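Hey,
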Amino acid sequence: MSGGFTLAEAAARIGAKLRGEGGHVPSALSIDTRTIQPGECFVALRAERDGHDFAAQAVAKGATSLLVDHFLDLPVPQLVVGDTLAAMQAWGQARLEAVRPRAVFGITGSVGKTSTKELLASAVSGWKTPGNRNNTIGLPQALATLPAGQGAAVLEMGMSTPGEIRRLTEIAPLDFGLITLVGTSHMENFTEGQEGIARAKGELVAGLRPGGAWAHLSTDAWCAWIANQPWAAHALSVPVGPGSDFGWEAWRSLGPRGEAFTLRTPEHRAPVAIQLRGEHQVRNAALAATVALLAGWKLDEVVAGLGKAEPEWGRGRLTALRGGGLILDESYNASPDSILACGASLMELPGGEPVAVLGGMRELGSTAAEAHRRVGAGLRALGIRRLLAFGEHAPAYAEAFGPGGRAFPDFESLRDDEAGLPTLSPDARVLVKGSRFYRTERAVEWLQSQLA
């Protein structure tokens, strides 16, 4: 399903000068000639490289219009503005205003944002931001072609520095919010430490419309801190979990098929089964269900929707190995909390030797070495038998893990060394995870080619 403004409508909304015919509706906005599709509008951003230098290539690959800061001698309609990023943000903001759904949800947190987005979008049968378009470029890019007639929009909101989520809520004012966890991701960018991270995550709450509500774990002390801040007083804080009216009970693993639990609300107890794996996904599902119910969705709709959500690539997808083992592909990104949660999930799966294959974690600042050691020791305590790690922080992982921990300087060494990936057997249970920088999906691809 697609939708959006004509070029003439967009020009009027964002204050652009239109050069060329204005009746075309772009199928999407693109900022990358490597992935652009025919029918899209190419946005020439000025960043490390000037997007205007790639506009001709975009047109050759099928771009039918351009958003630029000066007219280019190319045979397609062009929207000419002073600042292409500001114009794209205005475009996304204007589109949301024009076709605003019944409820707009925002999700942030140090771990679990994307999985929770999938669960919530499924629970409310809503439109969702695709992939990882959760920043001040990707979110408005996605919103620019938001289809009309949606009952809900579920927006993932990420941040690495203060003020980013505030800007996102200016582009997309929220009715309801959800914070999965205030952890330690991007610690190096916050001089105030975890309080700074909590304040930045709390920008989502500050950006809720008056009378809005947001959900968070009852055990997250930093979310409780957010709830007590003056700038959060306009929104209802709803804790989920132990000691709260909303929560989960009777959790049990269904192995490769996912998890089952009982959803607790002030009025009901409802059995839920989800396809996403791990106790952490049960928490995410309970958070998603709570905010959906607060927004007025019916319990049976929410429960049915949660069960339809499927794991995405790099975020919990399983690959069966020929000897009865499994790859748990969590390669998309990593933080200390998420690695340990996925390690616990691995131990619930059938198969032989449990092994963690890890790249490092980024943006942890002065806490990096200690964070990697904590994860190494934590995986050992969970029952993981071996740890194979690569990258600059691999020695910290391996040292804390103890016997069975091996460190490699880079992925090529991990792949080629006889003590690395070649030691894994097709009956093993293998968790693969690491920050995007390390591209740990290469380990997934190698294991699939050799053992599946």
